[in-house]
Amino acid sequence: MTYKMTDTTLWRQFAIQRRVIWALVMRETITMYGREGLGVVWMIAEPAMFVVGVMVIFSIIDNPYVNGITVAEYLAVSYPTLLFWRNGTNKVTKAIEVNRALLHHQLIRPIDIIYARILLAFSSAAASFLCCFQFLLLSV
User: Fold this and answer.
1) Phi, psi of 9 (to 5 degrees)
2) Distances (CA, A) of 136 to 55, 70, 73, 75
3) Three-state DSSP state, 3
């Protein structure tokens, strides 16, 4: 049975592409972090280690308060954004080359693979930020 994208409405096509991107995100998650729960912990812990390491280094080196904000507070908010940019661009550069076999499926387009990688990098950085932020709130 052949499926044609032109036979459906615009909203149906959006629903199909949303499902395709979600399936690609799940596939990338399993590929990068594995099927076990420890992989999800690593997805959050890897960016958190960078953030905490930079916060400790700059807290020791620099003045603890600049304009009423601690260096740790500033880095807890700003550094995950930098990590998202760096990790997102690094993971997207090889996305098409690594997932070339998936492009034989009619519903999967190259932009879907890129969106899936960006969404995974963003969710990793956001989860790391939320965990670090909760920890910093409890420590204050």
Assistant:
1) -80, 170
2) 11, 12, 8, 12
3) coil
Q: In 3D, which of 80, 87, 97 has the Cα closest to residue 117?
A: 87
Cβ neighbours, 10 Å, residue 6: 5
Token pair belonging to 122: 């963003």
Element (H, E) at 134: helix 110-139
> Which amino acid type is present at position 134?
Q
Q: What is the pLDDT of residues 83-120, one digit of tens each?
A: 778 877 888 888 888 888 888 988 889 999 999 999 98
Say what the pTM is: 0.76
DSSP state of 127: H
Alpha-carbon dihedral angle through residues 38, 40, 44, 47, given to the nearest 10 degrees: 80
Instruction: Tell me the pLDDT band of 6, cut-offs 50, 70 and 90.
Output: low
Cβ-contact 76, 129 below 8 angstroms: yes
pLDDT digits (tens, 9 = 90+) for 119-137: 988 888 888 888 877 877 7
Contact 107, 29 (CB under 8 A): no
